[in-house]
Amino acid sequence: MKYNFDGKLFVSIANTENGEVGEDTVFHYHQDGDIVTAEYEGGSIAKGQLIAKVRGDGKLDMRYHHINCKGELMIGKCLSTPEIMEDGRMKLKEQWQWLSGDMSAGYSEIVETDSI
Fold first, then answer.
1. Is-contact 14 25, C-beta < 8 A?
2. Would you write out the chain's pLDDT as a tens digit for each of its 116 residues?
3. Which helix H or strand E contains 110, and what residues bound it?
4. d(Cα 41, Cα 12) in Å, to the nearest integer?
5. What is the per-residue burial (b if ≥16 Cβ within 10 Å, else e) of 28-46?
6. In which region does residue 42 sit, left (phi positive, over 0), alpha (psi from -120 to 50) or beta (all else)?
7. Strands, E, within 9-104: which ranges?
8. pTM check: above 0.90
9. N or C: which end of the chain has fewer CB within 10 A?
10. Taking the CB of residue 105, how many other CB atoms lie within 10 A of it?
11. What stretches of the chain show up as alpha helix (H) in DSSP?
C-alpha cells in the first residue's frame, strides 16, 4: 500500500458551502488491507461513518453516512485523493456528492493531525 491510514486522525481545512463537515469535525481512520473505515463527529455532525476501497492508484472510493445536529440522516459518495505534504502529514483532497437531500456535489480537504 502506498499510504497507511490506520490510526490516523484528520481535521477539515476546507469545504464547499453545501458540505456539513467543518473545522470542528474529527475523523478517526482505520485500515485493513485495501479497506479503509473511519468514524467522524464534531461541529454540525452528531455521528458519522465512512467505508472506502483503496483503488490501484491509491485514491479512496468512499461512501459515507452521518446524522447531523438537526437529526437528519445524510449519505454520500466521495473520491478522495491522498498526498503527503512537505511536513510529512497526509492531506486528502475530496470530490464528493450527496446521495440524499439536494444531491449537490462539492470539494473538501482534510489533513492529518496529532491532536484534537
1. no
2. 589 999 999 999 999 999 999 999 999 999 999 999 999 999 999 999 999 999 999 999 999 999 999 999 999 999 999 999 999 999 999 999 999 999 999 999 999 998 66
3. strand 105-113
4. 11
5. ebebeeeebbbebbbbebe
6. left
7. 9-15, 26-32, 35-42, 45-54, 60-68, 73-84, 90-98
8. yes
9. C
10. 15
11. none
Virtual torsion, Cα 19, 110, 92, 48, nearest 10 deg = -60
Q: Contact at 8 Å (CB) between 64 and 36?
A: no
Dist. CA 64–CA 37, nearest whole Å = 10
Type and span of the H or E element at 106 = strand 105-113
Q: How far is CA 17 from CA 14, 22, 58, 94, 105, in A?
A: 10, 10, 27, 14, 10
pLDDT reported for residue 115: 66
- Say what the pLDDT of residue 1 is: 58
Q: Which three cell numbers stand for residue 46?
A: 452528531
Residue listed under C-alpha cell 473511519: 38
